[in-house]
Amino acid sequence: MTNILELYAKLLVLVLLGFFLARKLPAIAPTRLGQILFWVGVPVSIVSFLRRTDLSGPIWIAPAIAHAATLLGIFLAWLLIKGESYWTNTTPPRQTRGSMFLAAMVGNTGYIGYPVILTVAGTKYFAWALFYNLLGSLFATYGLGVILATHFGRNHQTQQRFWQVIFINPALWSLGFGLLLRQVPLPKVVDLSLNGLAWTALSLSLVLIGMRLSQLNSWHNFRLAGMSVGIKMLLVPLILGMVLPLLGLTTGTIQVIVLQMAMPPAFSTLLIAETFNLDKDLTVTALALGTLAFLFTLPIWLWLF
Predict the structure, then answer these.
(1) Do the beta carbons of residue 229 and residue 264 sit within 8 Å?
(2) Stated pTM of the model
């Protein structure tokens, strides 16, 4: 309970801080903060927390489950679209269907997932969250997500730019460096400084979430967005969460994976929607709705698992 209250305090205070700062600072501020976190903050956090993380056990299961969650989200979204067409005798536009698929399949397992996992479960299980995000969600977003966006969007750009995002992603490189540096002894002052920078970066990531939320001003297609978010944050983690105990995983590991599956839609879905001319209004609505709903769904998952 103490951890949950601490987590809610961090989420609310830092997100609200970012929300109000975005109204006072120049419009470029969220972009600059995002760039700093992308190139410096998140990589430093990964290297630091990997030094304190237990890498024993079948960690490869984490990205495998991430891909399973992605495919299940797509399948359930497809069923939703078919049901919508059957009951209303109308089919959502192609761009709307593309945004529905993205909202149902990709979660914010980094900027929100990392702080939540570290607060609830500590550094012991951080590797599971890390592998879920970097080897699961990242590839799902810029791989399958881009393929779907290319199919449903009106702007048929090449996928080269997005595959470049994967291969030049500093988080992936820092994962490799972090694994190499795990056994390298560092002076205590360096280690403590690294840890302090890591936690600062995670706090700033929550501030960035608030900044981006302040820029969202569209609540169109609330019903379709709500159903897509329901698939992403309720059905997928519930279905796969019931399967995880059969894999022989510990309670802590199951909790971490379920929380990663239950994260709200990722902000990267808005980037893809804008680039490929999908339904931006639905994407924005899903982002805002999912982020707010997470405050209510989090204790449910902690109670169930």
Answers:
(1) yes
(2) 0.89
